[in-house]
# Entry
Amino acid sequence: MLVQSGETVKTGQVLVRLAGSEQQAAAVEAARTELMAAEQALKDIQLNAEQSRAAALLRLANAGKALDDAKKVRGYREYRNGSDSMVASAQADLILATDTLDKAQEAYNYVSKYDDKNLLKAGALSALSNAQKAYDRAVANLNYVSSMPSQVDVDLAEAQLQSAQAEYDIAKREYEELAEGIDPDVLAMAEQRVKNGKAQLAASLSALADVELVAPFDGIAANVKVDSGSWVSPGQTMLIVADLEHLQVETSDLSERDVPSVRVGQPVRVFIKALGQTLEGKVSEISPIAETLGGDVVYTTVISLEEIPASLLIGMSAEVNYLAE
# Structure
């Protein structure tokens, strides 16, 4: 028993707690913890899905770039396949160009002492210039073809292209799968866990409510009938909560002859015998079901008072006069 007679209580305040409440309170906390874990797991699944999609998109972008780079390298394959023969041909061209240049140089040296206007000297100089140009082209061509990749480079580039293509295909499939959303089965299981957690918490709270009696409204604890440690039976009254600030008068003898002239909202005067005081009020309720009192058919009415004296107590007798309007 958590209250005593005459104690003021507030709405929702626990008045009586039955044995076993500790276990029920622990069950409530366990259910609340499970629900929090289920909700967090669902959030993690949703968050991980977003992060996975972002990571898959980044992987796809990197794989696409690597594939483009591999294709560019692979684009020189036509030249790589014939690189050995092209080098040999360029070397032969250089040998011939070197020989031609040497001969042109010897011919020019022979006539170099002649006058610049000499036709032989002019012809030898022109031949030397052309031979030098041919030699320079041969050297440049040999350097170019010699710098081309070998067959090993060709094979490596081919392997890198195939690897890049495979990585791109895998990254694309992964992103397309993740772009479709979370696995429906995984999501359904996580959502069902949250649903079960809510149901379990509601059941635990309901079970806890069954072992705790709370005040339904603000009032005074009155007529406490049991002590802590007492055994109680279903339906047994353990205490009464009284709302002294909103006391009403209940009649029990309005005859069937008079009830047709009474309506809800009709003004009344109420005489409190114990106080010798007359109070004003209105009819707030008329029972639609009759009762029998001493062989007479009567109806119960409820009267709301406009003012409640501090000395008015529950159970006092009152006389009600229904005023004509």
The CA atoms of residues 47 and 223 lie 57 Å apart. The mean pLDDT is 86. The two ends are 50 Å apart (CA to CA). The longest helix spans residues 21-74.
